[in-house]
Automatic annotation (TrEMBL):
It catalyses: S-ubiquitinyl-[E2 ubiquitin-conjugating enzyme]-L-cysteine + [acceptor protein]-L-lysine = [E2 ubiquitin-conjugating enzyme]-L-cysteine + N(6)-ubiquitinyl-[acceptor protein]-L-lysine. One of its GO terms (molecular function) is protein kinase activity. Pfam families: PK_Tyr_Ser-Thr, U-box. It is an enzyme of class 2 (transferase). This is RING-type E3 ubiquitin transferase. Residues 607-678 form the U-box domain. Pathway: Protein modification; protein ubiquitination. It comes from Artemisia annua (Sweet wormwood). The keyword Coiled coil applies. Its EC number is 2.3.2.27. Residues 235-325 form a coiled coil. GO terms for biological process: protein ubiquitination. Keywords: Coiled coil, Transferase, Ubl conjugation pathway. Residues 154-181 are annotated as: Disordered.
Length: 678
């Protein structure tokens, strides 16, 4: 390696070029070459394209991974030649204007390494044409080195050729010339050829320098052009900014003109505003006088309130006495009592479960009527299968007994021994009997049926609004009972809580069951087929033919809306079922308002239901409130009872868990509705 470098240095020195040696230490040869090109700004480079033994005549692509890496990653300012076995394989131009490739490349001496300089020529050594075809993109020192080496090689080659076969031009000379003369002339010709090559090389060097100067000038021109474009861009931006500011100024002028117009309008309105202010001040004085009068009136009312408070205290004393009398009266039926009869009492009430007293039977048990403690009752015998204890059963039943609603059958007792529930007895039986005309009962008119549907919907809303919601789980016409005033009441409330392993239900389950009840009320058909029958009738346009004719003349168009509502309740997807408050009850109330009941039909509504009467005042309640014992009282009555120091229930005489009161909105609504109809 040192010998080769010394030979290059000597050749360059003979050409008048000073060259130095640079040693680079590194693990990666190709990266070192690329970094050196960038570091020293090398503009020409000759490098081997592959090992010499890999050379073929058709070779045109780089084979060495180092050569490929350098070709791809070297700075674009470097012009590179890649040779193999003395042949030029590939040229990478320094800039974008490609130079024409050489059509033929002469072989160099094998002593020159693939990574060293290389040149090409056409024809024999010694002519001027060879010098014109030399490659022009090598670095200056490398080119000089390559030329010098090639000169030497060409000279040796010429000597060998002359020794073997003298050139034609000398063979055809005069016969009198000796071989020494021919040799001298040949040497002279070679010398002339070398001088011509040297001159051609010097001219090439000058031309390349001129090209470099021209490129530098082009770069400067391009930089100037770029600067000009930047200035033009900045000028356009400034012009756009100026246009924007001009537009903003114009907008501000328009706004100013608009403000001036509004100011003029305000000035014109000023007298009117002053007049209004004067009137407002006069009204203010008048209001001040009224406030003074109101204060005086308030003082008077406070005096009256004190008098009423004294009367109220006296009334509380009387209430306390009346409450004691109510608790002592065991001969008269009262909803405040919660019976816990023994098994023997149940046997006595049902006459040993006499089948003639059985009034109903279903999957939730049998129902008997009877008399308990001189009160007519209905006893529901639940299935005894399950693991629920007596205490748990009794607690669940007592919770259900506290539910009070005008359209829910009141649970008045429980017998854990027999797994039986004791309800108030309703004389007119179930809605199933009335719809199907069992027992020769008269049919219900369609207005009464709409009223019943509204009442049952109200009861469902009431139990669903409790925390947590109470699910009926077994809503059907058999569980809708009618009292002596034909007021409908929902029975079997919470039975699914008292029967172990019963199916888990949700609020939407009750909505679906209500949809079936509503369709049956309209048509009188069985639960198994009513949904399909109504769908087919609505689809075929003969809905009027499936309505229950015994109910009178139905307003078909309005009832058709109820039928669609019932079908929505029966949708398979619970998400698509309507809301009872916003959709169902609202529709039923509109129907009731459109067709109010006649005086004859409303006769039964004039009688005061017992659950509308306050147990303390014995008057229809105006502001019903639920106490901790589960019973509903008039607000003033129960508050007077509690404020007088009582901590027990006025009905059961048991200690109250707390003294908080809850307004009974459902009962208040029912009382108001009853008063409107009456």
């Amino acid at each position: 390696m040192h010998n080769t470098l010394n030979q290059y240095s000597l050749t360059l020195s003979q050409s008048g070029v000073h060259a130095g040696k640079v040693w680079i230490d590194g693990d990666n040869v190709e990266k070192g070459i690329v970094e050196t090109i960038a570091q020293y700004g090398i503009r020409w480079l000759v490098m081997g394209a592959a090992a010499d033994d890999l050379y073929t005549k058709d070779m045109s692509e780089l084979k060495s991974s180092k050569a490929i890496y350098v070709c791809q990653h070297a700075p674009i300012s470097c012009h590179m030649w890649f040779a193999c076995n003395g042949h030029l394989i590939h040229i990478r131009e320094r800039w974008s204007n490609p130079r024409p490739r050489f059509r033929s490349i002469s072989a160099l001496s094998p002593s020159i390494a693939p990574e060293e300089a290389m040149l090409t020529h056409h024809g024999e050594v010694g002519a001027d044409m060879e010098t014109r075809n030399l490659t022009r993109s090598l670095t200056l020192p490398a080119i000089e080195t390559s030329l010098t080496l090639c000169h030497t090689l060409d000279a040796d080659e010429s000597r060998e050729k002359s020794a073997e076969s003298p050139p034609t031009m000398f063979r055809e000379g005069p016969k009198g010339l000796s071989s020494s003369d021919l040799h001298d002339k040949l040497e002279y010709a070679k010398t002339d050829a070398e001088n011509a090559k040297q001159k051609a090389f010097e001219q090439s060097i000058k031309r390349w320098k001129a090209e470099d100067d021209a490129k530098d000038a082009l770069d400067k021109a391009e930089a100037s052009e770029n600067s000009l474009m930047v200035e033009i861009t900045k000028r356009k931006e400034k012009e756009a900014l100026l246009a924007t500011q001009t537009q903003e100024i114009e907008t501000m002028k328009n706004q100013r003109d608009q403000f001036m117009k509004e100011l003029e309008i305000t000035k014109d309105q000023k007298p009117e505003l002053i007049d209004r202010i004067s009137k407002a001040r006069a009204a203010e004085k008048e209001l001040e006088e009224k406030i003074i009068q109101a204060v005086n009136l308030l003082i008077t009312f406070r005096g009256q309130r004190d008098d009423l408070q004294e009367k109220c205290d006296n009334s509380k004393i009387q209430i306390k006495k009346l409450a004691k009398h109510v608790n002592e009266d065991n001969t008269e039926f009262s909803h405040a009592q919660f019976y816990k009869p023994s098994f023997s009492e149940i046997m006595e009430a049902t006459q040993d479960f006499n089948q003639t007293l059985k009034i109903g039977e279903g999957r939730c048990g049998s129902v008997y009527k009877g008399i308990l403690r001189h009160v007519r009752i209905a006893i529901k015998m639940l299935p005894s299968i399950g693991s629920q204890g007596d205490a748990e059963f009794e607690d669940e039943a007592e919770v259900l007994s506290r539910i009070r609603h005008p359209n829910i059958v009141t649970l008045i007792g429980v017998c854990p021994e027999t797994r039986s529930l004791i309800y108030e007895y309703l004389e007119n039986g179930s809605l199933e009997n009335r719809i199907t005309s069992r027992g020769r009962t008269p049919p219900l008119q369609w207005l009464s049926r709409i009223q019943i549907a509204s009442d049952i919907c109200s009861a469902l809303i009431f139990i669903h609004s409790s925390k947590p919601p109470i699910i009926h789980g077994n809503l059907n016409l058999n569980n809708i009972l009618l009292d002596s005033n034909h007021v409908s009441k929902l029975s079997d409330l919470g039975i699914n809580c008292l029967i172990p392993d019963s199916e888990k239900l949700s609020v939407t389950s009750d909505v679906c069951a209500f949809g079936v009840v509503l369709l049956r009320i309209l048509t009188g058909r069985s639960a198994s087929s009513v949904v399909n029958d109504v769908k087919c009738a609505l689809k075929n346009g003969n809905f009027g033919t499936i309505l229950d004719k015994t109910a009178g003349d139905w307003p078909i168009e309005h009832v058709k809306d109820l039928a669609y509502l019932g079908l929505r309740c029966c949708e398979k997807d619970p998400v698509n079922r309507p809301d009872l408050v916003d959709d169902v009850l609202t529709k039923l109330e509109i129907m009731k308002n459109l067709f109010p009941m006649s005086p004859v039909e409303s006769e039964n509504q004039r009688r005061i239901p017992s659950y509308f009467v306050c147990p303390i005042f014995q008057e229809v309640m105006k502001d019903p409130y639920i106490a901790a014992d589960g019973f509903t009282y008039e607000e003033d009555a129960i508050k007077g009872w509690l404020n007088s120091g009582h901590k027990t229930s006025p009905m059961t005489n048991l200690k109250l868990d707390h003294c908080d009161l809850l307004p009974n909105h459902a009962l208040s609504y029912a009382i108001q509705e009853w008063q409107q109809h009456s």
